[in-house]
């Protein structure tokens, strides 16, 4: 194995093995081999077109790079984990194959602009993949909601039963959060999709390169406007890690609710056997491990965001080796999000819903108390008085083990002569939901409109 560095000329000694291992990034940047090769193909083509290198040599480089790509993908060429990074590995391999011609590839380029290009290309691909996973999740959630427009359940505040909603309304709340996650990613994509090559090590180059040609060949929107900025900044990684952290936070809250709903205390849902796990000692156990892992892994993605923020905060311009640490952090955040979504989506798709249990729980918490007060308000009583009377009625119910539905009308009348038989219709949970038909409310027609809105947004 040839362990000569691409920069060996100035040195009289070989790199210490421990330094080499410490310094090397190929163990984690090898995953960008495709982007590195595609970027180099665009660069070499441009060098030829601009007469910076001979056109024939440029073509030979492009063919050589294509050969390396094919050999990596077929398994014929293995990564050399003693190499410094994926960039030097591929350049060294090209030179092995093409000799002097291979050595011309790096004309008018530095690994500093090369790595900035590779990361941007890699992230573009990954962001698109995450976007389609989020769309899939939203589709599953809207389909689930459509089937549960009439499924009455209690909405909670402080984890105490509060007011009547439907299961569809609850699920659609998460759809809205995931829609914003999707929009955030689309926005981050715009700032990732800028082409840095041509910035050189920091001060661009004296060669008459054509950056726009490379930009178009690689499908970028624009080129970076300042060579120092282009090789120094990783704010696009930080922005993405931040968007992924918010997405994980939403997944984690949803997971927490699924854990609660799947418990015997709630039993609003049950996860499919294929998406649950057992216990080594308790034969009866069926645990919602996926959701707990997502909750746990959320911390990990926050950690990745922190790593990036802290890594960058004290760096003078331009490139510093600290920045090599960007990749493990952002790759880990991406991998974790994809793993989580890939487990979460089918888990939601296959879970069983128990509407009777939701309805039964909703019947117990006096969640129609607001509607009882509103009934009196509609009959002319000021809200604060209606609120007080309803509170007293509820106290009586609790003392006598009754509900607003089972309290006799005579008892109601003792509190106010405004009460008539139609109070029972007003506090019926189904009526209470139907009445909340304002835009954004839980009434089936309002939720249907929400579903429509989201479907239009993601298609
Ligand atoms: N492996 C390096 C990284 O990931 C590539 C850039 C190296 N540049 C340099 N001047 N040492 O950041």
Automatic annotation (TrEMBL):
Belongs to the lyase 1 family. Argininosuccinate lyase subfamily. SUPFAM superfamilies: L-aspartase-like. Pfam families: ASL_C2, Lyase_1. It catalyses: 2-(N(omega)-L-arginino)succinate = fumarate + L-arginine. InterPro entries: Arg_succ_lyase_C, Argininosuccinate_lyase, Fumarase/histidase_N, Fumarate_lyase_CS, Fumarate_lyase_fam, Fumarate_lyase_N, L-Aspartase-like. Pathway: Amino-acid biosynthesis; L-arginine biosynthesis; L-arginine from L-ornithine and carbamoyl phosphate: step 3/3. The lineage of its organism: Bacteria, Pseudomonadati, Spirochaetota, Spirochaetia, Brachyspirales. Residues 366-433 form the Argininosuccinate lyase C-terminal domain. One of its GO terms (molecular function) is argininosuccinate lyase activity. The keyword Lyase applies. It is an enzyme of class 4 (lyase). HAMAP family: Arg_succ_lyase. Its EC number is 4.3.2.1. Residues 9-303 form the Fumarate lyase N-terminal domain. CDD domains: Argininosuccinate_lyase. This is Argininosuccinate lyase. It comes from Brachyspira catarrhinii. Keywords: Amino-acid biosynthesis, Arginine biosynthesis, Cytoplasm, Lyase. PROSITE patterns: FUMARATE_LYASES. It is found in: Cytoplasm.
């Amino acid at each position: 194995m040839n362990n000569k560095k691409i920069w060996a000329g100035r040195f009289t000694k070989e790199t210490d093995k421990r330094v080499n291992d410490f310094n090397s990034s190929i163990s984690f940047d090898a995953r960008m081999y495709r982007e590195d090769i595609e970027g180099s193909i665009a660069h070499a083509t441009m060098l030829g077109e601009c007469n910076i290198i001979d056109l024939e040599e440029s073509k030979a480089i492009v063919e050589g790079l294509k050969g390396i790509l094919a050999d990596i993908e077929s398994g014929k060429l293995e990564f050399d984990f003693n190499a410094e990074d994926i960039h030097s590995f591929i350049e060294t391999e090209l030179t092995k194959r093409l000799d002097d011609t291979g050595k011309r590839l790096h004309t008018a380029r530095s690994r500093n602009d090369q790595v900035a290009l590779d990361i941007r290309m890699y992230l573009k691909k990954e962001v698109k993949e995450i976007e389609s996973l989020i769309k899939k999740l939203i589709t599953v959630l809207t389909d689930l909601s459509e089937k549960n427009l009439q499924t009455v359940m209690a909405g909670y505040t402080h984890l105490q039963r509060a007011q009547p909603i439907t299961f569809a309304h609850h699920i659609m709340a998460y759809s809205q959060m995931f829609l914003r996650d999707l929009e955030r990613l689309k926005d981050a994509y715009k700032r990732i999709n800028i082409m840095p090559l041509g910035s050189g090590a920091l001060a661009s180059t004296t060669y008459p390169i054509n950056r726009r040609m490379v930009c178009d060949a690689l499908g970028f929107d624009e080129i970076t406007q300042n060579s120092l900025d282009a090789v120094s900044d990783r704010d696009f990684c930080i922005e993405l890690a931040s968007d992924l952290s918010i997405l994980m936070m939403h997944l984690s809250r949803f997971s927490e609710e699924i854990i609660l709903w799947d418990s015997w205390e709630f039993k609003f849902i049950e996860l499919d056997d294929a998406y649950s796990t057992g216990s080594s000692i308790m034969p009866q156990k069926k645990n919602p491990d996926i959701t707990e892992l997502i909750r746990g892994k959320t911390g990990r993605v926050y950690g990745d965001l922190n790593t990036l923020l802290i890594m960058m905060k004290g760096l003078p311009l331009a490139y510093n080796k600290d920045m090599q640490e960007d990749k493990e952090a952002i790759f880990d955040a991406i991998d974790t999000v994809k793993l989580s979504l890939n487990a979460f989506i089918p888990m939601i798709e296959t879970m069983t819903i128990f509407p009777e249990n939701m309805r039964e729980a909703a019947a117990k918490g006096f969640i129609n108390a607001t509607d009882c007060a509103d009934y009196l308000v509609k009959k002319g009583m000021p809200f604060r008085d209606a609120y007080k009377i309803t509170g007293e009625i509820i106290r009586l119910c609790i003392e006598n083990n009754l509900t607003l539905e089972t309290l006799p009308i005579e008892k109601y009348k003792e509190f106010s002569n405004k009460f008539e038989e139609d109070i029972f219709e007003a506090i019926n949970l189904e009526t209470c939901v139907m009445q909340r038909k304002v835009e954004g409310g839980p009434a089936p027609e309002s939720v249907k409109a929400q579903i429509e809105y989201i479907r239009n947004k993601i298609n």
